[in-house]
Amino acid sequence: MPVTTLRIIESDAEASLHPRDIWNHWKKHVIWDPRSYYGVLEFGAALIALLSVLEIQTITGYDHPGSFPWYAVQKLWSGILLGLGVSPLHWYSNHRQSAHLLTRVRTHLYVLLFLGVTLFISQIFLIQEPPPCYGSNGCEVRNTLNTCIWLSILFLFIAAFIVYTVARNPRKDPVLAELPSPTAAGIDFEDETQAAWASVNVADGIEDDSAEPEGQLRL
After folding, report:
1. Are 71 and 130 in contact (CB under 8 A)?
2. Residue 41 domain flag
3. What pTM value is reported for the model?
4. What phi-psi label fits residue 135: left (phi over 0), alpha (psi between -120 and 50 degrees) or beta?
5. What number of helices (H) and strands (E) belong to the chain?
6. Transmembrane segments in this chain: where (predicted)?
7. Does residue 132 register a pLDDT over 60?
8. Long-range CB contact pairs, 118-123, < 8 A, 24+
């Protein structure tokens, strides 16, 4: 009769609740993934549009001369512009086998910087002459709306930095990372993929989290 013995099984770091393992997971899969920031920006765009509609309804509910909600309408267009600009980037950042224009690093950088600069300029112009607040919570809604827009501008520039950094320093395959580099082997040649980093696919710099087909290994 075989003797039953205890066997020590190492815990999986991905399933661990230790703060260090949680931080390592976020640093590897969340912080350096531009899709995380695209999701935050999409949520911010929806929140900006919702608060803008709420402010428009508040302003139009008061019969004051010259109370056209141009200020809130501009905020609404900011939210719509942000959502329409970021949503396609988020969608195409998951396409690894596509040669579409919206999968290119250069396109992502141009769109993110354009949105960030446009929203920043619009905020600077509107901050000079803010209209009066209407309703009991008009000022609170407006302050929350402006805070969401400023945070969205910040996240736009952070996302652009992440896209740029990941494209210049893509993730290395664990198997290929163990092989000696061409430079160490005495081979000196220009890495074309590094030189043309702006034309590579954004998804190439993100770890492939898709399910492998049964019986196959991801290389």
Report:
1. yes
2. yes
3. 0.74
4. left
5. 7, 0
6. 37-56, 68-89, 109-127, 147-167
7. yes
8. 118/81, 119/78, 119/81, 119/82, 119/149, 119/152, 119/153, 119/156, 120/153, 122/74, 122/78, 123/149, 123/150, 123/153
Q: Is residue 132 part of a domain?
A: yes
Question: Alpha-carbon distance 123 to 79, whole Å?
Answer: 12
**Number of domains within the chain:** 1
String of DSSP letters for 114-130: HHHHHHHHHHHHHHHSP
Rg over CA atoms, the chain: 24
**CA 3 – CA 191 distance, rounded (Å):** 58
Structure tokens that stand for 81 in this block: 């512009």
Q: Are 160 and 153 in contact (CB under 8 A)?
A: no
Q: Which two tokens stand for residue 107?
A: 């396109």
Residue-range definition of the domain harbouring residue 46: 21-169
Across the chain, mean pLDDT equals 75
CA-to-CA distance for 124 and 112, rounded, in angstroms? 18
